[in-house]
Design goal:
Length: 311
């Protein structure tokens, strides 16, 4: 009888689950809603619903009974951190080994197929995380939208709005970012948009999505937009460099992978590639990384097969 392993990527936008066997073959995959928070009104219910929904769908695709399957090992990574989720998961999942960790760990494992290296994540926020071949780990960034997250989507939009406000008030250089942001949001003025961003209607991920409009403006030749994106890439490169300095010798050839919506933009991605040696796209997504970590927890390092594309 084959042994089964579970990997779950629990993020701010979706929860993705993969089930693999002991030969390294992915036999089922599932997707459900976000599960990064368990506190607040309905938080626990949303969390358990997302886990049950994604794992249940993966089990059905694998031809397994979600109510009775026992996993040899399971790894679940969460953008909101693991501390408040382990007890809940212990009551939900039947497994011999349970690893609950953060999203950067599983993103790195997927990006490098489990090998040593560094992952730089730039979505709504930003963080760099690395692991040495001997198992040492280090991180830089990830301080949140108030005190950090340099180079992330929220920060890029924040810098663009600041530039638009300065241009509107006459103490900054003219920039097409003002018209870009007004058109994208339907606001009348940059000041009107600022006040909209302080309302609950504009969540941080929604604000971060406007980084794509900054990219479009830079592509049309706007100097201020280009400067904002160049600075974002430099800050992300600095995060990766800080992690590299903590874990690796200067002469080491260290793979650095990127992941996150900000890197879908050409300006940040190509500038980052120019600044960081051996930088490139990830091998796999975070859910695959979680599955690799589940195999790793059981002492297995199989050759992957039948891996679905993560979106």
């Amino acid at each position: 009888m084959p042994l089964y392993f579970l990997g779950v990527d629990g993020g701010q936008s979706a929860t993705k689950a993969l089930i693999g066997d002991d030969a390294g073959r992915v036999v089922g995959h599932g997707r459900a809603g976000p599960c990064n928070h368990v506190h607040g009104a309905g938080g626990r219910e949303k969390f358990t619903g997302a886990i049950e929904g994604s794992v249940g769908e993966a089990a059905r695709r694998a031809g397994l009974d979600a109510a009775t399957i026992r996993f040899e090992a399971a790894c679940l990574g969460f953008s909101g951190g693991p501390e408040d989720k382990r007890v809940i998961l212990e009551s939900m999942l039947r497994c011999d080994r349970l690893l609950v960790t953060h999203d950067a760990m599983i993103a790195l494992a997927g990006a490098t197929s489990g090998a040593a290296g560094i992952i730089t994540i730039a979505g709504t926020g930003s963080i760099a995380f690395g692991r040495h071949a001997q198992g040492r780990v280090a991180r830089a960034g990830g301080w949140g939208y108030i005190f950090g997250d340099e180079g992330g989507g929220f920060d890029i939009t924040r810098q663009a709005l600041r530039a638009a406000l300065r241009a509107e008030e006459g103490w900054g250089p003219p920039t097409a970012l003002r018209e870009t942001l007004l058109k994208a949001t339907g606001a009348d003025t940059a000041n009107d948009l600022l006040h909209r961003f302080y309302t609950s209607a504009w969540t941080r991920p929604r604000i971060a999505d406007l980084a794509r409009a900054v990219e479009d403006t830079a592509r049309r030749g706007d100097t201020t937009a280009r400067e904002i994106l160049d600075r974002a890439a430099s800050e992300l490169a600095a995060l990766a460099g800080a992690v590299r300095g903590k874990l690796f010798d200067p002469a080491d050839k260290v793979r650095v992978a990127w992941i996150g919506g900000v890197f879908r933009g050409e300006f940040v991605r190509e500038r980052f590639r120019a600044l960081v040696p051996f930088a490139g796209p990830p091998d796999h997504g975070p859910a695959t990384g979680a599955l690799l970590e589940a195999w790793r927890a059981a002492g297995l390092h199989p050759v992957l097969s039948n891996v679905p594309e993560e979106s």
